[in-house]
Specification:
The complex is a heterodimer of chains A (about 850) and B (about 180).
Chain A (H helix, E strand, L loop, with lengths): L43 H27 L15 H18 L3 H7 L4 H25 L5 H24 L4 H19 L4 H32 L16 H16 L1 H4 L6 H16 L3 H10 L2 H12 L4 E5 L6 H10 L2 E5 L7 E7 L7 H4 L3 E3 L6 H6 L6 E4 L6 H10 L4 E5 L3 H13 L5 E4 L6 H4 L5 E5 L14 H4 L2 H21 L9 E6 L8 H10 L2 E4 L7 E2 L3 E2 L2 E2 L8 E3 L1 H4 L4 E8 L8 H28 L5 H9 L10 H17 L21 H17 L5 H14 L2 H17 L3 H12 L1 H9 L3 H18 L8 H18 L3 H10 L1
Parallel strand pairs in A: 5-6, 5-8, 6-7, 8-9
Antiparallel strand pairs in A: 1-3, 1-4, 2-3, 9-15, 10-15, 11-14, 12-13, 14-15
Chain B lengths: L5 H15 L3 H5 L6 E6 L2 E6 H7 L7 E4 L1 E6 L5 E3 L4 H7 L3 E4 L1 H8 L4 E2 L3 E4 L8 E6 L4 E7 L3 H5 L6 E8 L2 H4 L1 H4 L1
Parallel strand pairs in B: 6-9
Antiparallel strand pairs in B: 1-2, 2-4, 4-5, 6-8, 7-11, 9-10, 10-11
Classes of the chains: A alpha/beta (about 850), B alpha+beta (about 180).
InterPro entries (chain B): NIP7_N, Nip7_N_euk, PUA, PUA-like_sf, PUA_sf, Ribosomal_synth_fac_NIP7, UPF0113_PUA
Keywords (chain B): Nucleus, Ribosome biogenesis, RNA-binding
Subcellular location (chain B): Nucleus, Nucleolus
């Protein structure tokens, strides 16, 4: 039976098999591709073949060695075979070089030196082999039909080539070029053997050679950088002028020195000390990040090297903008919603605060939104919320914010207190206090008393506070990203001025707190500086002077405070205070310490206390004078400048020559060091050094008048003076000199010590006055007479030789006069100079 | 800090009554202690008696501000309220004006409110009635006086002024130097 046939015509379902048109044949492109895509997968067979080839090569190598020892030169003519393709030749030659380069970078120069060397030969062979290898692969890709025999031939050929060239070179006086050429020829020969002048092949050759060129260049470059990187040579002074250094060079050098310092024993250059390296590093960092030497030195003391770089980098970028919700008027969520509606992109700041928001970007100015004006938030750095978090104000307390402008922290305190209790916000600056008033009103704080007092006198006004927040004025070294001028403007004297004031403020703050307060008795000290002088040292001072102890802040991040820094050893509990760095917590550099007052009694006696007070006052006053003096003492070198000075301090400045400016700088430094007052010792008033540029005559005079004085003072600074005297005395005729010295000594013994002592006293008492007196432009004129008279005396000195004590006593008196009236020799010296 | 003279007290309370009417009572009798008005350098401060006592430690010149400043007397004894008074005026205000969001910014730059910027207005407010100005989401923006009564407002020309500007919170920025 079977199936019944279906005769009905079938409908066509598709276009049918034949309708589909075959596309043009596609050849695997890789056959023409440059050979460096070797990483393409090989088929199983290919792999097998490759393995075989490898085996053969090994065998051949062995054979080759044997042959080389025996075989003489056979084919010399081959080199002339195909000079018809000069371009190709050259290129292939280059390629040759490259391939050798890859293995032994310095092959080319070495070759010339060791022409007939066996070592070289070996290298050559290796190179040749590697080339042949490449070629093999190419061939394999090109022609699948290649059989193994052919390849074998090829290999053998090439192996011979290597050997040939070697021999050729070995016995001939030809240069390397020739041998290279020969090799190239060899290759060409191969080509012509296979099929001559296939255009594709030629193209591929060209391409190869071009690539080889590129590779060569890249190699060179790499080599150069490697050369630079791996050996750091310490720059010799005077060898390379500074101006040639680019910023990149400096950066590179910083990295290098960092590396050296990270493993000093390993990377150091022989005979270089660590100090030299750090010195160089500091200099470079100063240059690169534009800090001044002083601050960079401090930073290098504070941070480890790795941290230092992080810190410096972090200080270059601005911190994210943060705002603090005013919890008196709104909630953070509501505020965030309102601001997001205005096109502000923000997020909660952190777990430690429930009022902070960090703003990523904003389409509206955040300082002028209606929410801001209505007092819903305050623009405030994250770091300045920390002290208030640490202070942890309670409701119905009496709290003092000693240095409150512009009122960010103060308003935060009031907000935490929920407008209960009383907040005293004080600031010494009447201009800045306006901002406090404005902010407090805007934020709706009604429990505040805002005053404009000198905070150091606050204990006379009111005490018995439950908590005191002291956000002390500081150098601001932590907020470099906000105010880059800090990098260059701060100096030792600034730091000193700050910490003296800070100590005074902190003692006052402690005195203002009531230790018996039921809820409080806390003082929080904070600065936006990271220098230990302004932080740990100040706290340490307070710990010694008052009955306070450090307590934990209640903030779980930040670095612990230093318990030791260089030669200083601070109280061991100092690690309870916290430091915040831009690179670790992404907020401004900050220091916060919380103190608890446990007794209202002051551990030191009243006299001591007064002495301390006085000491701090004096230090501050001395610094003030120092700064006052800075400007006027500088630059009264010529009468012109003097005249200008009458017009105004800055009038003459632009016209100063370089020399004068240098002098000015020197003086400035001198005046600074002169008034550097250590806090634990009384500020030492150092008599001024005679100016280095003064002529010998003047110095003689000074010597006369000053010797007595100087012998009375035992300060080490005077040794310099003595030295100078010695020099001067050598210039004067000998016999006289001897006598003079004797006389001087006699005098100093004989003469009553009154005048010297007097001057000293004067000097101490009215430092301030004196500075001004020295400086007053009219004074030198008044002194002119005296100076004249004095000079006459000095000129007569040689005549003194025979005449004993009488004249001398006269002289003595006169010098005394001078000492009393002018007190300082400076103006006289100048005057004389002018006259000459 | 000194007590207000009889005359100045009268002026002050009249002025206050313009904005908050009988709610003045609530400023004086508070459950959380006695509050009082004091004068310091011609400025009126409203402060708790407790804080006032503490502030007496400071000298005349050193004391800058206590509590909330309401306004300042001119030399001719005319009282002008500062924007800082808004903190107490806004919650007690009897007559209010709401401005449209589109006009908010304009108002904060010190412009009078035209009819077109008016969002809402309290009923039954008469002409020259002191009002507190709010944004549509009840953010106090300032205060002023009505240029025309509520009923007149309804029929007013869109560009005609409805409320005269007296003070706005933009002054915290614009007039920080003169205000404080």
């Amino acid at each position: 039976m079977g199936r019944k046939a279906d005769y009905s015509e079938k409908e066509k379902k598709g276009p049918g098999r034949k309708t589909r048109k075959q596309g043009p044949p596609t050849f695997p492109k890789k056959s023409f591709a440059p050979m460096d895509d070797e990483d393409k997968r090989l088929s199983h067979r290919q792999k097998q073949r490759v393995a075989k080839r490898e085996q053969k090569k090994v065998v051949q190598k062995a054979k080759l060695k044997e042959k080389r020892e025996k075989q003489p030169v056979q084919k010399k003519q081959q080199k002339y075979n195909s000079e018809s393709e000069p371009e190709d030749e050259e290129m292939s030659e280059q390629e040759e070089q490259v391939s050798t380069d890859e293995e032994v970078p310095q092959l080319v120069p070495i070759k010339k030196q060791l022409k007939a060397n066996g070592v070289k030969n070996k290298k050559e062979i290796v190179a040749a082999e590697s080339e042949s290898d490449e070629e093999d692969i190419e061939e394999m890709e090109e022609e699948a039909t290649d059989n193994e025999d052919e390849e074998e031939e090829d290999d053998e050929d090439e192996a011979q080539v290597g050997k040939l060239t070697d021999l050729f070179e070995g016995n001939s006086d030809d240069e390397f070029d020739v041998s290279g050429e020969e090799e190239a020829d060899e290759e060409d020969d191969d080509e012509s053997d296979d099929d001559e002048n296939m255009p594709i092949e030629r193209a591929s050759k060209k391409l190869k050679s071009r690539q080889a060129k590129d590779a060569e260049l890249a190699e060179e470059e790499l080599q150069m950088t490697v050369d630079q990187a791996d050996i750091f040579r310490f720059p010799v002074e005077g060898e390379e002028p500074e101006k040639e250094l680019t910023l990149q060079d400096v950066q590179q050098r910083i990295k290098d020195v960092m590396q050296v310092l990270s493993d000093f024993n390993k990377h150091r250059e022989e005979g270089r000390s660590r100090a030299e390296y750090t010195e160089l590093l500091r200099h470079d960092l100063c240059l690169y990040y534009s800090y001044n030497e002083f601050l960079m030195e401090k930073l290098m003391d504070i941070f480890k090297l790795s941290d230092l770089m992080d810190y410096l980098e972090a200080s270059e970028v601005a911190r994210p903008l943060t705002i603090r919700t005013n919890s008196l008027k709104t909630r953070r969520r509501d505020l965030a919603g309102a601001l997001i509606n205005r096109g502000v992109n923000l997020d909660p700041l952190g777990k430690w605060t429930n009022v902070g928001l960090v703003v990523f970007n904003s389409t509206v100015p955040l300082g002028a939104t209606p929410e801001y004006l209505a007092g819903h938030y305050m623009i405030q750095g994250a770091s300045s919320m920390l002290p208030v978090v640490a202070l942890a104000p309670q409701e119905n307390e009496r709290i003092l914010d000693m240095c409150s402008a512009p009122g960010g922290k103060g308003s935060h305190i009031a907000a935490v207190m929920k407008n209960t209790g009383t907040l005293f916000a004080n600031d010494a600056n009447r201009d800045r206090i306006k901002a406090v008033v404005a902010n407090f009103h805007r934020l709706g704080i009604v429990n505040a008393v805002i005053s404009c007092e000198d905070a150091t006198k606050f204990r006379n006004i009111m005490t018995g506070f439950d908590r005191v927040l002291l956000d002390a004025p500081c150098t601001g070294t932590g907020v470099v990203s906000k105010d880059p001028s800090v990098k260059t403007t701060k100096s030792e004297i600034d730091v000193q001025r700050c910490y003296n004031l800070q100590r005074k403020l902190l003692l006052t703050a402690i005195d203002c707190v009531d230790a018996k307060s039921k809820t409080g008795g806390y003082i929080v000290y904070s600065t936006c500086s990271i220098l230990p002088e302004e932080n740990e040292w100040v706290i340490d001072y307070a710990l010694k002077k008052r009955n306070v102890k450090l307590v934990p802040l209640g903030i779980d991040f930040g670095e612990p405070g230093f318990t030791k820094f260089r030669q200083h050893r601070y109280h061991p509990s100092m690690n309870l205070s916290k430091r915040f760095y831009p690179h670790t917590s992404n907020m401004d550099g900050f220091y916060v310490a919380k103190l608890k007052k446990f007794s209202n009694t002051i551990p030191i006696t009243k006299e001591q206390q007064e002495a301390d007070e006085k000491q701090l006052d004096e230090a501050i006053a001395a610094e003030a004078t120092a700064t006052e003096e800075e400007a006027p003492t500088a630059g009264d070198e010529t009468e012109e400048t003097k005249e200008r000075k009458l017009l105004g301090k800055r009038a003459g400045k632009p016209n100063l020559t370089d020399v004068e400016q240098d002098l000015k700088k020197k003086k400035l430094e001198q005046s600074k060091t002169k008034y550097v007052a250590r806090v634990f010792e009384k500020p030492v008033k150092v008599p001024k050094k005679p100016k280095p540029e003064q002529p010998a005559a003047t110095e003689q005079k000074q010597q006369e008048s000053g010797q007595k004085k100087m012998q009375n003072d035992k300060k080490p600074e005077n040794t310099q003076n003595y030295k100078k005297q010695g020099i001067v005395q050598k210039r004067t005729p000998k016999p006289q000199n001897d006598k003079k010295q004797e006389n001087g000594q006699q005098k100093s013994k004989e003469a009553p010590q009154k005048p010297a002592a007097k001057t000293q006293e004067n000097g101490k008492q009215n430092t301030q006055k004196k500075a001004k007196v020295d400086v007053a432009p009219s004074k030198p004129k008044a002194n002119a007479k005296l100076a004249k008279a004095k000079r006459v005396d000095v000129d007569e000195v040689p005549l003194l030789e025979g005449k004993p004590i009488k004249n001398k006593s006269k002289f003595n008196q006169k010098s005394k006069q001078v000492g009393q009236l002018s007190k300082s020799k400076k103006p006289e010296g100048k005057k004389q100079k002018f006259k000459k | 800090m000194k007590r207000l003279s009889e005359e100045r007290t009268k002026i002050l309370f009249e002025k206050l009554a313009k904005y908050i009417g009988t709610n003045v009572q609530q400023l004086i009798d508070r459950p959380d202690g006695t509050y009082c008005f004091r004068e310091h350098r011609d400025r009126i401060y409203y402060v708790s008696e407790r804080i006032l006592k503490l502030s007496e430690c400071f000298g005349y010149k050193q004391l800058v501000c206590v509590g909330t400043c309401f306004g300042k007397f001119s030399k001719t004894d005319k009282l002008k309220f500062h924007i800082t008074a808004l903190y107490y005026l806004a919650p007690y205000a009897q007559y209010k004006v709401w401005v449209k969001p589109s006009f908010e910014q304009q108002y904060l730059y010190g412009n009078h409110i035209p009819k077109s910027g008016l969002g809402r207005i309290t009923e039954n407010a008469g002409q020259y009635q002191g009002v507190v100005v709010f944004s549509m989401n009840d953010l106090a923006l300032g205060f002023g006086v009505l240029a025309r009564s509520t009923t007149e407002c309804k029929s007013a020309d869109p560009l005609s002024t409805v409320c005269f500007h007296q003070s706005d919170i933009g002054e915290y920025i614009r007039a920080e130097d003169t205000l404080f």
